[in-house]
UniProtKB/TrEMBL annotation:
Pathway: Amino-acid biosynthesis; L-proline biosynthesis; L-proline from L-glutamate 5-semialdehyde: step 1/1. Keywords: Amino-acid biosynthesis, Cytoplasm, NADP, Oxidoreductase, Proline biosynthesis. Residues 161-265 form the Pyrroline-5-carboxylate reductase dimerisation domain. This is Pyrroline-5-carboxylate reductase. It is found in: Cytoplasm.
Length: 267
């Protein structure tokens, strides 16, 4: 059984820890996390009974696989502070936006094992979507083990690093846009007189069902949209407004802005 450590214990690390513990991939005693304060660590300890420490170096000493789960602005400094403990055998898994494999190799050495990844917060409910980019020192068996961790809380794919900015736009950050869409649809239902809590359930379940249809039917999203639009009916009226208001171009522009920001952060 591999020991898994997390430097950083915020939103994303919490979602991953929740995912791997709930899917019984690792025992809680084999997971350790560190953070700046005890606030998030205490919550994770109470909920999942994992080991916690305020010392990132303790995490590295006690882990075979070390997740770097701190914000990009402090990432390099934190990695620098533990680099002497990262031997040839440990695997460093970064989840940070805008941190390239080469920038990590510059800090810990290009002979070290690194996997750059991009997960998303639906990991918390076992519906995560993650991308993994291994560096040249990662062996197939090691990639399989780490991919298994990501698959334990959703789906994952191995991609070339050149795709990671697009991954951030379409899955890493996209839960935020989808939550906005659900909130806006529910607002409209509230306008129509529906109690708010009920409106969130109706809106969210519809998004869940629509997403499942795209994945399971294999049909083009346009064809699935057409199946909902009865001639002269209600749906096409809404579609007309969405087209007039530039919904598609808003979404494309928003996701492109996200991708551009990710590229900028990597420079
Ligand atoms: N949120 C998301 O949806 C996603 C985030 N990411 C990436 O995940 C990373 C973390 O983001 P997120 O979880 O949202 O951020 P959070 O702000 O929620 O968490 C950051 C964590 O880092 C800890 N921390 C701060 N300083 C240090 C330090 N010096 N040493 C050790 N730990 C420290 C914080 O401690 P404390 O608990 O005390 O505050 C906190 O636990 C980012 O790099 C982001 O790009 C990737 C995919 C999705
Ligand atoms: O907003 C961010 O920068 C991080 C990366 C992907 C999701 N959250």
């Amino acid at each position: 059984m591999k020991k898994i450590g997390f430097i950083g214990a915020g939103n994303m690390a919490g979602a991953i820890i929740g995912g791997i513990i709930k899917s019984n991939l690792v025992e809680s005693q084999n997971v350790i996390a560190s953070a700046k304060t005890m606030t998030n660590l205490n919550k994770l300890k109470d909920e999942y009974n994992i080991n916690v420490t305020l010392d990132a170096r303790e995490v590295v000493k006690n882990s075979d696989i070390v997740f770097m789960a701190v914000k990009p602005n402090i990432f390099d400094g934190v990695l620098e502070s533990v680099k002497d403990l990262i031997g040839d055998e440990k695997i460093v898994v970064s989840i940070a936006a805008g941190k390239s494999i080469s920038s990590m190799e510059n800090i810990i050495g290009d002979d070290k094992k690194i996997i750059r990844t991009m997960p998303n917060t639906p990991a918390l409910v076992n519906e995560g979507m993650s991308a993994l980019c291994p560096n040249k020192n990662i062996e197939d068996a090691e990639l399989k083990i780490v991919k298994g961790i990501f698959d334990s809380f959703g789906k994952s794919e191995v991609v070339g690093e050149y795709l990671i900015d697009s991954v951030i736009g379409v899955s890493g950050s996209s839960p935020a846009y989808v939550f906005m869409f659900i909130e806006a649809m529910a607002d409209a239902a509230v306008v129509g007189g529906m109690p708010r809590k009920q409106a969130y359930n109706f809106a969210a379940q519809s998004v869940l069902g629509a997403a499942k249809m795209v994945i399971e039917s294999g049909k083009h999203p346009g064809e699935l949209k057409d199946m909902v639009c009865s001639p002269g009916g209600t749906t096409i009226e809404a579609v007309k407004v969405l087209e007039n208001e530039g919904m598609r171009s808003s979404v494309i522009n928003a996701v492109c802005a996200c991708i551009e920001k990710s590229k900028e952060m990597s420079k």
